[in-house]
């Protein structure tokens, strides 16, 4: 789960990382109040989870109430690469002497944590990594050992920052590491981490991605659920506990297991179609789950055919078949359903489907046959 | 032969008294696995259809000589369960549970590596391991597998593992061992761990490797295949059409920037001499050709 900048900054502040005084606002009046509390001049920043806000006109400096009103009214409601701005973050403007980059994430190849620190902040780190990889000081951290302060200091020195920033950066990195581990983040990134002319180090931006598997030990994350950038269908799927991602095609996909569903998307593509979604009902899905999955896909007007691809392990094909039949009885399904069942209780499942087979419910023996049939129906 | 497990493997089920643990533990026993014990601190002294339940893995091991563990404990308890098994001297730990926090995985993987270097962890979030006719630990439906080899299978995806077993069995080709390593960010067992053992296993003569988008494990495996493997490998990668930046179910299955794409993985595997199937059904046909030429 990705956080907005303001949520990331509030999280950083809880771990003691210096951030500028500021507040989030959903209206122009609230933006003015936030500016007055922070003190002029302020920066008004669009809160969207997409890069390139500045270039799109989503970040503006304001020295007075009139300027805050002007910029906030322009930015709120603005469309930045398909993301509508619903909130702005208003914070005291900072004087910048230098801009750095700092982050912690998992190095999956090494199976350890990776810290990255660079004197070349303020730009995309991928660009720095490509043009000048030596400008990034990397530190591999064993999760059992954690980040030792002396190791951290040596790392900061290796990054060749302004020596005046060393103590401040060591302090921020220690706190950022805690936010990463104790905060159960997949990624914490500060870009830029700035040094001010008077020698203070603080976070001017915040990028945080949280590990949703750890939500059971973070009740404070509940507040983020309301601000997730989900469309209505994604929200419906989430409420029903389904793993759904919307795509652009016309074949609705339901399967069990992430690998099999991804593979189904690929096979649909190979036979000339395009998937309307990724929907993984997970292991052990029963009739109710399948019925919910059909309902979610049924709200997508682009869907011209639905492909249900199940290989039963924990999941039992008879349960799946029962769910499909139940869904057909409960809602008017807009598109024909093509179903392929294999694995645990596949024969029982096919027997449940058989009496209901029609031009609206078609059983196919293999994944490839089912994909061909679904694509053919979708292109009619 | 088989890798990691065989007919002598004795398994303790951590979480045998829960619904999933009970269902699959008994299913594994019915398959022929030596299911020797379960653990539950509150139900020590009882049994699950004849399988004795102990308070701890250490007690279970002392009483039964268990060598492997299979964990069905809910995600919040997995970290402690893994460490408990390792501290009790269990050599092979299989974690079926999904939804384990990544920081827990990173911690226990590295802690095991430092304190118990000979302990092999498989998972979390994996279907387990099956050596057809000998031992089935986890949730793989045993009836779709076929004993006798000569094919070894290693896969990051559960249901695609079943699909591959099914394709082989349909072709009349047996399997030595099938390992589901799971789709999480820190898998205890890697592709390379399995490939190197298949390379050393006399009965395994060809290998199927099933990967997916995200990370660089397939590229690392390709390098291993290119430099260290003599046996033929048929590969399949799921997620060719997955858009960047979208987590497709598995915590590990995400394309970040230009990294982790299916195209890059397929290219690396082909450059390493693998035959790469374009869809799961093709795995069967390609492997049939490979086996016929052995």
Q: What can you see in these coordinates?
A:
- The complex is a heterodimer of chains A (380) and B (294).
- By secondary structure, chain A is an alpha+beta fold.
- Chain A contains 13 helices and 18 strands.
- In chain A, the strands form five sheets. In chain A, strands 7, 8, 9, 10, 11 and 12 form a six-stranded antiparallel β-sheet that branches. A four-stranded antiparallel β-sheet of chain A has the order 1-6-2-3, with helices on one face.
- In chain A, strand 4 and strand 5 form a beta hairpin.
- In chain A, helix 2 packs across helix 3, helix 5 packs across helix 6 and helix 10 packs across helix 11.
- The radius of gyration of chain A is 25 Å and the shape is elongated.
- The mean pLDDT of chain A is 93.
- By secondary structure, chain B is α/β, with parallel strands linked by helices.
- Helices cover 35% and strands 22% of the residues of chain B.
- A seven-stranded mixed β-sheet of chain B has the order 3-4-2-1-5-6-7, with helices on both faces. In chain B, strands 9-8-11-10-12-13-14 form a seven-stranded mixed β-sheet, sandwiched between helices.
- In chain B, strand 5, helix 3 and strand 6 form a beta-alpha-beta unit.
- The longest helix of chain B has 14 residues.
- The mean pLDDT of chain B is 94.
- The interface between A and B is large, with 51 and 61 residues.
